[in-house]
Amino acid sequence: xxxxxxxxxxxxxxxxxxxxxxxxxxxxxxxxxxxxxxxxxxxxxxxxxxxxxxxxxxxxxxxxxxxxxxxxxxxxxxxxxxxxxxxxxxxxxxxxxxxxxxxxxxxxxxxxxxxxxxxxxxxxxxxxxxxxxxxxxxxxxxxxxxxxxxxxxxxxxxxxxxxxxxxxxxxxxxxxxxxxxxxxxxxxxxxxxxxxxxxxxxxxxxxxxxxxxxxxxxxxxxxxxxxxxxxxxxx
Length: 235
Known about the structure:
It is a single chain. The protein is an alpha+beta fold and about 240 residues long. It has two domains: about 1-60, no CATH class; about 80-235, 3-Layer(aba) Sandwich (Protein Transport Mog1p, Chain A). The protein has helices at about 1-10, 10-25, 35-70, 145-160, 220-230, and strands spanning about 95, 100, 110, 120-125, 135-140, 165-175, 180-185, 195-200, 205-215, 235. The strands form two sheets. Strands 3-4-5-9-8-7-6 form a seven-stranded antiparallel β-sheet, with helices on both faces. The longest helix has about 35 residues, at about 35-70. The chain is elongated. It starts with a helix and ends with a strand.
């Protein structure tokens, strides 16, 4: 049962995001006596919902894609179960999956296996204008194919799933003596999200780091994320 939930749980944020957008654009009919309240709600929250709901939809599609392409059943997890903050004296998080990194001070870490991840790093700070909170995900799994085949398969599946986001760049990047394949995607037209995915392999394992932000926070978030990447080490 939990295996099916993990594979299809992305449907929930997709439907929630679609419903929120319909509310924000006034496409859902309400009773006449509630119409005025809805107008007030749209004036107060409509702009924020038009930003957050597409992010929620993309998040759900990404989770759905990951679940459907997963090689095995996901772990039974609770997304909101935060298990630790930084774990040693210099703030370095050390994973049992064979790597360590230094997240920004005060960030929370969920390493319960949510979304088939090794760990999810969650910023406690929300953007005042959009409500955006920065999150990045580390995934580790057996390397069943070469890194070239893996990135090609990811890009193919991603482009078929997300028509509103296009690949901007794919390059090799050396960070802290580790060779990464860096994929950069950005939204088309009015879509404000952008995504970076890093791939590398070691000891027959594939290490993947996913990071998403919005265009208005590009410089701030990218600098913070780059500092995390520079701290990444294998144990």
